[in-house]
Amino acid sequence: MLSIEWTSQEPATTALQTLVVVLASPDCATVLERLFGAPTAQAAVAGRFTGRLGDQFRFARERDGSLQTVVLLGLGADAPTAGRWRSLAHEALRAAQVGSLQLVLDLRQVTGLTPATPQLGNLLAQGLELATYRYDRYIAEARRKPSTVQRVTVLSEHTAASEGLARGQTIATAVARARDLVNGPANEVTPTYLAEFAAAVVGRLKDCADVVLEVLEREDCEKLGMGCYLGVAQCGPQPLKFIHLRYTPKGEAKGRVCLVGKGVTFDSGGLSLKPSDAMMGMKMDMGGAAAVLCALEGAAQLAVPWEVHAIVAATENMIGGSAYKLGDVLTASNGKTVEIDNTDAEGRLTLADALVYAGKLQPTYTLDFATLTGACIVALGPHIAGVMSRDEELCTQWLSASERAGEDAWRLPLPEALKEQLKSPIADMRNTGERWGGAVTAGLFLSEFTEGQRWVHVDIAGPAMVRKPFGVNDEGGSGYAVATILEFLR
């Protein structure tokens, strides 16, 4: 973990130090001339640095007997969002010269930081820490390129933001743990591995928080009538694990929050087999499970005042002689029957029984997170999660937390009329609708298993499974939703 300090006192220039100066668009050239002199300002202008969002200009200067690398970083003209602050810190650390031990991040030229709130410190600490993240477990040591930065000094005239640094580092650690789970290969991250990870969470927290784990095996799930979950899991060579992790705060809890995460550790599509290109990233189909398990650990470390339950129906979706088939009818634990018309719509089946299980805990709120549909990516693009709920107040609370946390989300409707697509001639419903509105019909399907619950569904298929780097995310698992969950529980 980085050593981060927030100060108004500029540190001495030392060897192996990179200075990153953040500049906004207005009057950029004037500010540059004042800070670094006319020749440097002219060189920056010639290099087309104008302070626009994403602009960078690099140079070196001799100061106090040391050679210092200086990077100018553009912030743009508009007021930065929470997501932009996270990205800015991420860019700053990534811009540090290879071999640098210290990053000095100078925010003194940015107007509008009066006061600099603890939330700003939280966001910047997240971006800084996540910039050090690499999943390089299976790369030869000689080829690894870890960050060399050990210390970060944030320069600002207002230092109240320093109060948020520890929180941001805790959140970033939880996000990084979730990324490790999602990035891990499917031959390693199995349902059993997820259960063992949950047990390790209990072990890490045993001296500071009340966290309890229960893992249901196949026989337990059969007794509870989890026919949809069992149907998906009946072929996989890996045994299913239904994971229930619970955190109880000290003192009286404000309420009970159930976090349900899709935990399909590999999705072949089943007999509705995916093509190779579509199957390649399906080790990441348990991004929802990773988010809820790691968010619960972060919640316990931050001592949130809610009782929090992380619930994961973990399994693989594989092919073979015992695989569930198109035309099968499965019975969920609430008694609803489902005709299978696509075995590649398996995540909603596992979630159905997990949501019924959550409902029996009488939660104040239930939120589910799932890399559920490609249709959501078609609708909203790869960076934005789809949010569905009929609970106006809860949905607004979630979207507000998302905005504060810097994770993009957008609300999609749940029109009752589209349930027509889920009708079956031989069962209560089918597990998929038509091609059009696929993300919405998936949400409508899940709503059938949330009776009596204040519930929000978050389809994270785009931002949780990153194909091209963006924001604070490299290719692979992003740990999406961890930061928003912890902001929501705040």
Going across the biggest sheet, name each strand in turn.
7-8-10-9-13-17-14-15
Backbone CA Rg: 24 Å
Shape: elongated
Q: Find the count of extended strands (DSSP E, 2+ residues).
A: 19
Structural class: alpha/beta
Task: Tell me what the structure shows.
This protein has 490 residues and is an alpha/beta fold. The protein has 16 helices and 19 strands. The strands form four sheets. It has an eight-stranded mixed beta sheet with strand order 7-8-10-9-13-17-14-15, with helices on both faces. A six-stranded mixed beta sheet has the order 1-6-5-2-4-3, with helices on one face. A hairpin with a 5-residue loop joins strand 11 (329-331) and strand 12. The longest helix has 19 residues, at 165-183. The radius of gyration is 24 Å and the shape is elongated. The model has no long low-confidence stretch (mean pLDDT 95).
